Amino acid sequence: MKSILTGLADVIFPGRCVTCGVVLGPDKTLHFCHTCFSRINFIQSPLCNRCGIPFNSPDGGDHICGDCLTSETYFSVARAVGRYETTILDAIHRFKYGGKIAIGEILGRLMADFAYPAFDIQEYSLIIPAPLHPKRLRERGFNQSLILALAVSKRFSLALDFTTLKRRIHTKPQVSLGGKERKVNVQGAFEVSEEKKIRGKSIVLVDDVYTTGSTVNECARVLTKSKAAEVAVLTLARALQPDSRSDISDQR
Ligand SMILES: [Zn+2]
Ligand SMILES: [Zn+2]
Q1: Residue 50 C-alpha to ligand 2 middle, in angstroms?
Q2: Cα 240 versus chain centre, distance
Q3: How far apart are alpha carbons 37 and 51 in whole angstroms?
Q4: Over 80: is that where the pLDDT of 181 sits?
Q5: How many Å lie between the centroid of ligand 1 and the Cα of residue 86?
Q6: What's the gap in Å between 94 CA and the centre of ligand 2?
Q7: Residue 248: is its pLDDT beyond 70?
Q8: DSSP string, 151-200
Q9: Annotated domain spans of the chain
Q10: Residue 155: CB atoms within 10 Å
Q11: Which of 12, 17, 53, 112 has the least CB density, counted as fewest CB within 10 Å?
């Protein structure tokens, strides 16, 4: 009986590729068609040990990038699943701006399953999603980072806290701003409501996209001020900005 119902459900709701919508085969663990999956640029070594930006040159292995050498970073490490382009970009847009929460749950599982170079989620004690301002939350109806963080917290049985770190200032969307403006835009935007919930914790801060790192770095600064033992950053996507990021291995 169950198999008849499952079979019926497959006819009525066939699995479709998250990004292009093509009907998928009977394997329910797949969410992307072969073409869309093959377009995902997964982030691998060599990369910056700290911010996780991948280097184009395979020489030199993992090392600290020029930007991390010269700028103040409050997180210990940042890692991402894939580059913010093609399939990942499409999927994030459908999820975040198209309100497709089911896609967010699939992307969250992708984040939870990915083998990050030199980063082990199990070493941490608390997961915190990058918060939205209440006004933005009302507009969107959900916090995309919370949907992603939920999947990671579930997979690793880690505590999730989405109330202590708050966004107190409704800033301009970062997407409209350049590198320096982004940093200024988020300054003082976050606060911790109860320091005792943060003190001594090793935190994985989850966000959807890492662009210049301004948002997650400001969150990490506030969490560190509240005596977090460590803050690591995990994002689904990594936007690459060749103009603003420098790779010392490429400068040689
Ligand atoms: Zn597809
Ligand atoms: Zn770096």
Answers
A1: 5
A2: 14
A3: 25
A4: yes
A5: 11
A6: 29
A7: no
A8: HHHHHTT-EE-SSSEEE-S-PPPGGGS-HHHHHHHHTT-EEES-GGGTTT
A9: 1-38, 44-251
A10: 15
A11: 12
